[in-house]
């Protein structure tokens, strides 16, 4: 029996109503219907209410022998305050493919952080007639994955400080006695996770009673250097007052104070692990080898050294299953993982993409979103995500708007609260032409991976025919396979049918192999320099701190990892105000950090905030419930 | 059609295997079968995987006209390190009622905190052959309620500090302009939550443009006194280094540092709100009126003043639905809310009990657990929970063990890691007799509410006939309706059949009305003194701080709330080492705080920790996943 069709035609209104009103006006299908449209039976997923289900990883194992569909990645030009509509285009394209072009399609999206939902940005479910629904469930707890990350991250943090505290007050013998207490028969036993530490130390004994005093000391004393700790606590709230704090000031902590801070939960390395892992067993290994700092003698200390690899995996065991939702037009969506693209690798999960590619099968489409521009999300998509997943995209979509291109062409500054400048509201071909240098570099950078590029111009009513033609020509000149005008915000999937057709053609004619920007076996600096060159930089400048850290990570054996640049998304360079396609600058590397569990080295290009703040009037003022309908109000 | 029977007979082994092994050996029924046994159809609940479902509050509305079942509360004697098995008895009693006595029964339990699960205590799903399953899901994220509380609590905390920050740097006019910005047409609008603040201020205008400069100042400037802030951040992790911290040390926070700290999430007032609320609309009101501190002029500042009542409700909208699970013998369990009993009111939710009473109907039983002894959980059950719910229990079960009574009778100290003293392992009738003073006071205190008391002696193999007889006689002499020996840990429901029969008789013969310990309309001190008297105290001593706070809360109009004593659970008095039934002591009140949203004043009797720590070898060392079966290992 063919799976039921779930595609649903929309009644669109003009002018386009508020996002939440559009979302609330559509009654979503029961998620089991969406699942059935992908040939999933109830044993393949766990329901979370009526409109969300977690698809179990076992689905991938079952389908391992079958062929994949086409793999499409959506990125954007360099973002501006005017917005490009990247998520909206991702959703609109899928609504076109699924509801109008009769293709099997799955949209793979990142789970948004709850912090910005209540802060400035609002939700992230797309917009207009291209949205994931129910948008309140998408933007709020979803199925608890980020909460699980918060819990796991903070359990590890608590374990670090408490371990230092206990080591400070106990002799080697007492410490060992507490770590491996004798049972009723006087017999000691190592927990499984302790055997990993013994192995790392080169101690091949499994009976605690056989350890020599020196081995006992090596095993029981992690001797963490408090100044070396890179592991911070996290919270999924925009709480700027936690950026820098002093902990341990209670009298019971005996003066063991330490300066540290909180990041927003999506910045946790555990989020990056979730996004990059390929199986439950692989996640167990990655979580266990996360490095939290060094011992006083300079050896990396891991979560497994602290005894936590198994417990963290248990906390994350449901989070590893992607969440199935639906678009306004009834096409399936997998929401999974949500690392930020400026401070992490900014892509949704490998496991969701892999499952989706099997579910759509040959001729079907998986459309996945990478954060921000080609310098940020797409570069990391190719060099980190595809390297770990071994998946190869057939097409990259780059989303642009006439307004944003005008800004890249030198258009006036946009200030929140002030009316938009005339330049953005009426025809100005010269500005658009000038701005196309930004788009062109995103195209050529992406083409360099050997992938076909389709430009999607997300159209506004004020865009003129001449302006749109300029973008089309510039795109083709820069090497794009095609450039298409879309109106999915106003019309849903119907407005992205041309884009869908172009993407299909691009996929069908893709023949080149995926070419990475750098091999893994060159040194850290060479890799950084390869990426910097792709930004347009003429060179790289390292701080003393960065030099030291590169040396340290190399000495610790981590130099063969890929690189994840932490850089502003607002420019190809490190200076957010440099629009267009800057070149000839020297990229400064302020510091270098490492996410060993996730599997990358991340150089910090300037200072990136890892904890947003709340404005004077946060979004939360408008968020409430209508008790008569039970609907959430005021989400945007 | 009669609902399907789900009761299932257990194959019990001797000696009793580890809790997790018993739990993993039973394949749970799909939760829809458990739901069907309560006449619930799929529209009444949301599935969360195969073994958990959230029962929607609308069920209560549907059944509002139908009659309630019997309402049984389970408490214990004063706890000792030897344990009493209160949760185990609660579950065992229900397995007896449901699987052996053919009664409709629902067990109402608190959700355990994840902190202790990975710390010292381990899980809280009962034990032996009386457990809630799957025990890993019970002890871990469950359906995300505690995570929702953490998120809501911390959003409010972030809003407090950020508001102070923004008020410090902006003029009244700028502040008002940001809070009520003009839209494109230049028109300003108050958010709904702002109208609440205007009403509180006695400003009956709804057009922002009509406010006078003085009204603008009153409206826009909360003028929070940083030293008065009682709202702390929370985390569901045992992180002792967060007990006392300094926040705001980042350069962007401009020197606005403040000393504060984190509590464990279950200590959040939002947890108490969840436990005591009666509907979504009631929860909205309670969340909005939570007081976070005072203005510099001494007025209480609420979550609604900060603009958050609606947003907090949205974060908590799914958490208000109780989670349906099952016991080892297939009887239904509602898990909902988990405030600690020493620092909060220590009872599961009103909404779960109310729904359960309708679901079991006349002749059925709802067994709900109150934390610790009659001084802690049961007193608060009667005077706070039943006062807000208007429900009346027909029977109170008090759980005791011979071992624990021996300790109350003067038995030797129990030290973790050292072998148990001989006194606890062989007959010692004199110690048991002496210890029964503790049990007797719990019985008489509970009888004072007009409720029938049944004592459940949770039997160990080492207990002698004479020892058990002593407890029976002492119980009856103290006014108990009955006293019964139980072996549900070893035998499941079958071991609690006598208890089930006694509880049924106690319920059927209950005739007295519920008598509260104090009326609400006396002053705060008189209420505190009534409770202290029930502890055996001869008087109460107030610190200067406590005197000031009582005066303040009285002036602020909060003196008619019930009292929730924050007191050690290890003694009737404030001194944990005073076992048995101490009397004649003077109860010291160190400080007085208030949970205005939850609806109680809480005096602090001594210093209670609101953030546990981790030991040198926390439970997490043993927690892992068996990748071949997917089962969680090492939970206890």
TrEMBL record, chains A, B:
Give the pathway annotation: One-carbon metabolism; tetrahydrofolate interconversion
What is the catalytic activity of this protein?
Answer: (6S)-5,6,7,8-tetrahydrofolate + formate + ATP = (6R)-10-formyltetrahydrofolate + ADP + phosphate
Enzyme class label = ligase
Extract one GO cellular component term from the record. cytosol
Record has RNA-binding as a keyword? no
A Pfam family of the record is FTHFS
Source taxon at top rank:
Eukaryota
Q: What Enzyme Commission number(s) apply to this enzyme?
A: 6.3.4.3
Q: Which GO terms describe its molecular function?
A: ATP binding; formate-tetrahydrofolate ligase activity; methenyltetrahydrofolate cyclohydrolase activity; methylenetetrahydrofolate dehydrogenase (NADP+) activity
Q: Which UniProt keywords apply?
A: ATP-binding, Ligase, Nucleotide-binding, One-carbon metabolism
GO annotation, biological process:
10-formyltetrahydrofolate biosynthetic process; folic acid metabolic process; methionine metabolic process; purine nucleotide biosynthetic process; tetrahydrofolate interconversion
Family of this protein: Belongs to the formate--tetrahydrofolate ligase family.
Q: Assembly and partners? A: Homodimer.
- Name of the protein this chain belongs to: Formate--tetrahydrofolate ligase
The upper taxonomy is:
Eukaryota, Viridiplantae, Streptophyta, Embryophyta, Tracheophyta
């Amino acid at each position: 029996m063919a799976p039921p069709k779930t595609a649903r035609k929309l009644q669109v209104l003009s002018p386009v109503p508020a996002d939440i009103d559009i979302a609330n006006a559509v009654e979503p299908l029961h998620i089991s219907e969406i699942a059935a449209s992908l040939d999933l039976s109830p044993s393949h997923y766990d329901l979370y209410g009526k409109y969300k289900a977690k698809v179990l990883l076992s689905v991938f194992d079952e389908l391992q022998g079958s062929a994949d569909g086409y793999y499409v990645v959506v990125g954007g030009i360099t973002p501006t305050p005017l917005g490009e509509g990247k998520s909206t285009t991702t959703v609109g394209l899928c609504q076109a493919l699924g509801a109008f072009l009769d293709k099997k399609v799955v949209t793979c999206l990142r789970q948004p952080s709850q912090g910005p939902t209540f802060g400035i940005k609002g939700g992230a479910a797309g917009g207009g007639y291209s949205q994931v629904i129910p948008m309140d469930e998408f933007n709020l707890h979803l199925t608890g994955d980020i909460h699980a990350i918060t819990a796991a991250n903070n359990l590890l943090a608590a374990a670090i400080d408490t371990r230092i505290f206990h080591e400070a007050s106990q002799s080697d013998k007492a410490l060992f006695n507490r770590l491996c207490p004798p049972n009723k028969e006087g017999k000691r036993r190592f927990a499984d996770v302790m055997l990993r530490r013994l192995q790392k130390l080169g101690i091949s004994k499994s009976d605690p009673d056989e350890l020599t005093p020196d081995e006992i000391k090596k095993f029981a004393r992690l001797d963490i250097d408090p100044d070396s700790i890179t592991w911070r606590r996290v919270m999924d709230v925009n709480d700027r007052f936690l950026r820098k704090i002093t902990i341990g000031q209670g009298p019971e902590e005996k003066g063991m104070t330490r300066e540290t801070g909180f990041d927003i939960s999506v910045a946790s390395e555990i989020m990056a692990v979730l996004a990059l892992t390929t199986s439950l067993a692989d996640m167990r290994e990655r979580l266990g080898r996360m490095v939290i700092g060094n011992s006083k003698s300079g050896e990396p200390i891991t979560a497994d050294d602290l005894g936590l690899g198994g417990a963290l995996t248990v906390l994350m065991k449901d989070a590893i299953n992607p969440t199935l939702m639906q678009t306004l037009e009834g096409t399936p969506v997998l929401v999974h993982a949500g690392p930020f693209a400026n401070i992490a690798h900014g892509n949704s999960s490998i496991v969701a993409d892999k499952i989706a590619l099997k579910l759509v099968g040959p001729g079907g489409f998986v459309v996945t979103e990478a954060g921000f521009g080609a310098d940020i999300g797409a570069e990391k998509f190719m060099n980190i995500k595809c390297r770990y997943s071994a998946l190869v995209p057939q097409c990259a979509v780059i989303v642009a708007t006439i307004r944003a291109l005008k800004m890249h062409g030198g258009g006036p500054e946009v200030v929140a609260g002030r009316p938009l400048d005339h330049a953005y509201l009426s025809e100005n071909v010269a500005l658009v032409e000038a701005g196309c240098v930004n788009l062109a570099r995103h195209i050529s950078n992406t083409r360099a991976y050997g992938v076909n590029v389709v430009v999607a111009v997300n159209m506004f009513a004020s865009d003129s025919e001449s302006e749109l033609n300029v973008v089309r020509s510039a795109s083709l000149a820069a090497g794009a396979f095609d450039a298409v005008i879309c109106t999915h915000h106003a019309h849903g999937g119907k407005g992205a049918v041309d884009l869908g057709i172009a993407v299909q053609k691009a996929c069908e004619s893709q023949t080149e192999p995926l070419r990475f920007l750098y091999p893994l076996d060159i040194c850290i600096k060479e890799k950084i320099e390869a990426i910097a060159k792709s930004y347009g930089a003429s060179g790289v400048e390292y701080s003393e701190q960065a030099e030291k850290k590169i040396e340290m990570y190399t000495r610790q054996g981590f130099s063969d990892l890929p690189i994840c640049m932490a850089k502003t998304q607002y420019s190809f360079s490190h200076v957010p105000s440099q629009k267009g396609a800057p070149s000839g600058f020297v990229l400064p590397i302020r510091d270098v950090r490492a996410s060993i569990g996730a599997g990358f080295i991340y150089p910090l290009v300037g200072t990136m905030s890892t904890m947003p703040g709340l404005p004077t009037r946060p979004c939360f003022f408008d968020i409430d419930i209508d008790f008569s309908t039970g609907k959430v109000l005021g989400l945007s």
